[in-house]
Amino acid sequence: MAYSYLVLLNIPFIALGVACVIIGLDLLLLPDSPVPTHQIRGMMEGACVNIEALLEEFDASERAVYLPPRDGRVYAFVPLGKKVNPSLQMFEKAPLRVLTEVSGEPGLFVFPPGSEVVRISVLSEDYGVEEALNYVLVDFLEAVQSVKTVEEGGRVVVEMKVPRMNTDFPRFQRVLGSVASSVVGCVLASVLMKPVVFSDEEINGDSVRGFFEVGSSFG
Q1: How many helices (H) and strands (E) does the chain have?
Q2: Model confidence pLDDT, tens digit, residues 27-54
Q3: With b meaning 16 or more CB within 10 Å and e meaning fewer, what string describes 178-187?
Q4: How far, in Å, CA of 86 to CA of 31, rounded?
Q5: Alpha helices, DSSP H only, in the chain?
Q6: 200: which of 78, 179, 211, 219 lies 20 to 30 Å off by Cα?
Q7: Domain residues of the chain, as ranges?
Q8: Other beta carbons within 10 Å of 110
Q9: What is the pLDDT of residue 84?
Q10: Which residues, including other chains, have CB under 8 Å from residue 129's CB and lie 6 or more apart?
Q11: Contact 201, 210 (CB under 8 A)
């Protein structure tokens, strides 16, 4: 721009230079994320309070089943009786309300905090399991440092390094997993489009390993 102004005396080049400077300043001032990730993580942890109270009220202790998106959002079914065989056809017929029944078995439909994160992160349909988990947990949410997955038949093991979200709610953690594992369940159900059961979780220092069982689409 300076060369065009002082030497060439070329007005179009000067205007182009000014435009480039303005665009560059706009890019520098534009935040990477409209909402800071630490605030999103804080809101997610706060949302666990209501779910913890609900689970305590109904004395829920069985592992949750994360279900493929319904109206764009992932829901989790928490059995109040015996463990339910996770087939998608069975859950599609269940009324979508807090206290419901699946194949005659009572349970709760809860809206896990990770569901909204998965929705607003706009996952690509081309993402595989590990790619989707890295995008949501590492890039978008910055909830963990890294993610690795191992798929064995109908089982998925997800290892997360340096989790940055804490869960001080024992009932929530037993039923849905830690906050990071709960997000994993939402991502798996959304990508695989199958029911996903939170099976177990191991916490070892700065590493969290979540175990999930993938149900069937029909049956």
Answers
A1: 8, 8
A2: 554 444 444 456 666 677 777 888 999 9
A3: bbbbbbbbbb
A4: 42
A5: 2-3, 11-29, 37-57, 88-92, 113-121, 129-133, 170-176, 179-192
A6: 219
A7: 1-30, 37-214
A8: 21
A9: 66
A10: 149, 151, 156, 187, 188, 191, 192
A11: yes
